[in-house]
Amino acid sequence: MLILIIIVVLFNVIAIFIPKRLTGIEIAATSLFAMYLQVNADVFLDLKYHLYGYFQKGPDFRSLIYLLGIYPAVNIVYLNYFPYKKKVINKLIYLLAWEVVACVMECIFLWTKTYYYNNWKLAYSLLMYPSIYLTLNCFHKYIIYLLKKIDPNRKFL
Q1: CB of 133 within 8 A of CB of 30?
Q2: Which tens digits make up the pLDDT trace of 83-93?
Q3: What pLDDT is stored for residue 58 in this prediction?
Q4: How many Å apart are CA 117 and CA 147, to the nearest integer?
Q5: 4 φ, ψ to 5°?
Q6: Element (H or E) spanning 19, and its range?
Q7: How far is it, in rounded angstroms, from Cα 100 to Cα 75?
Q8: Which helix (H) or strand (E) holds 117?
């Protein structure tokens, strides 16, 4: 649990103090969307199918540490530095780097027993992370599209 708290503090300090390329509304909207994705995935994969879980079987208030502490901060850092204006290869390298970060963190959480597998495997996560990150990118682009409709002269990423 101590390692989880340290990682939460570390990611949140980074998310708070990095120079922001995102506006406040982009941060709020995409962070809420990231939490929405996580809750929906957990309802089915954890609570319904029992493939993995946090701490112990079933709902657990401690899993809110992940929901409120990890996912918004990771979302902010990931989207803030995403190379939107770079070549596709740069975007793929960035995506791959974040997939590695996510898998390393998942292994740490398994090791510390704040996260567990039943019928889940790390290979499934490796397959899922790119689609999760790309979904965050698509939602972020949608938020920018909506913001540009409100203020067409404003510059966004």
Answers
A1: no
A2: 999 999 999 99
A3: 80
A4: 40
A5: -60, -45
A6: none
A7: 15
A8: strand 115-117
Which residue type does 109 have? Answer: F
Dig out the tokens for 101 from the structure: 């970060």
- CB distance 40 to 149 below 8 Å: no
**Cβ-based burial of 40 (10 A; exposed 0-12, middle 13-18, buried ≥19):** exposed
Amino acid (1-letter code) at residue 82: F
CB 148 within 8 A of CB 156: yes
- β-bridge mates for residue 53, sequence order: 116
Q: Does this model's pTM top 0.85?
A: yes
Q: Are 26 and 82 in contact (CB under 8 A)?
A: no
For 116, phi then psi, to 5°, come to -140, 155
Q: Please give the single-letter amino acid code of residue 25.
A: I
A 10 A CB-CB count for 155 gives 6
Q: Which residue has the tokens 């340290």?
A: 6
End-to-end CA distance of the chain: 37
